Amino acid sequence: MDLYDDIGTGYSSGRRTDPRWMTEVLAALGTARSVADVGAGTGSYEPRDRAVVAFEPSAGMIRQRPPGAGPAVRAVAEALPLRDNAVEAALAVLTVHHWTDWRAGLAELRRIAPLRVVLAYDTRRHTEFWFVREYVPEIAALELGRPSAEDIAHELGADAVITLPVPWDFTDGVFPAHWRRPAAYLDPGVRHACSALAQTEPSAVERGVGRLRADLDSGRWHERHRDLLALDEWDAGFRLVVSRG
């Protein structure tokens, strides 16, 4: 069973497109009129004003694609059923860290398109996130075993690496999305939509959530993180990697 056939149930409700990130993705895609969205999931950041074909291995994720979305093909990033330079741009949003052979997948992006736009993250930055550091440190080993944005940028020979900060009211439920709204992590639905939590030993997550609940009840979390409460956005390590030619 594909990972997201298992953990992706209800993914489309928890992982909603944030317009601020969408603006950055569209700017990176520039004038490209045809786009292959690789590891597309539910298509959260697919442009609606140009031709898009999606490639996604999970049938469960494909079923959650919204009405009007471009066609979706079940395929893995490492073996895309497209000819060389078939599209003007290849898009990969928060997916490379799930690929079985991420270097082979990136080579496929280079093969099918002259422009590659990859949304990834600094894995070490994620290990420094307060939820990991203070409550579920077991997540760190998982994150450090994944390709980081820097690795992806190097492999692609990136022309630009753009920082995408996470606003405090971010609508896409990526793992660190609730950095200023800690009570959100008490919700099992929120946790289930985050692969880092869904792939961590449940007993470790439950233990950490119990500690977080106690710290919220006592006011300890707010005292410890009062600096975060004054911020409108935070750099959680997300990067838009752009590679041309």
Attribute tags:
single chain, 245 residues, alpha/beta, Rossmann fold, seven-stranded mixed beta sheet, two-stranded antiparallel ribbon, 13 helices, 37% helix
Summarize the structure.
The protein is an alpha/beta fold and 245 residues long. It has 13 helices and 9 strands. The chain starts with a helix and ends with a strand.
What do you see in this structure?
The protein has 245 residues and is an alpha/beta fold. It has one domain (3-244): Vaccinia Virus protein VP39 (Rossmann fold), CATH 3.40.50. 37% of the residues lie in helices and 16% in strands. The chain contains 13 helices and 9 strands. It has helices at residues 3-7, 11-14, 19-29, 59-62, 102-112, 123-127, 130-134, 139-144, 149-156, 188-192, 195-198, 202-218, 220-224, and strands spanning 34-38, 51-55, 72-73, 89-93, 115-121, 160-163, 166-167, 233-234, 238-244. The strands form 2 sheets. The protein has a 7-stranded mixed beta sheet, sandwiched between helices. The longest helix has 17 residues, at 202-218. The protein starts with a helix and ends with a strand. The relative contact order is 0.16.
